[in-house]
Amino acid sequence: IKLNEDMGKKFFKLNASIGSLLENDPMVSFIPLNIKDEDNIELVLAHVDNAIQYGEDLEPKPPKDLDE
């Protein structure tokens, strides 16, 4: 309700549609971003990496020899 008051009548349908999508579609989620909180930024980046499967196709690096 507060979002609709702050945004005005122009965006009421958009807000309702986004809210409905977030509530009804299990493949869609919302993660708030606080640019002043480093832990929050890391959390958002981890979710993005997971969503796009970043690094999944990379070969693991071989372990270094302890003799060297």
UniProtKB/TrEMBL annotation:
<protein>
    <submittedName>
        <fullName>ATP/GTP-binding fet-like protein</fullName>
    </submittedName>
</protein>
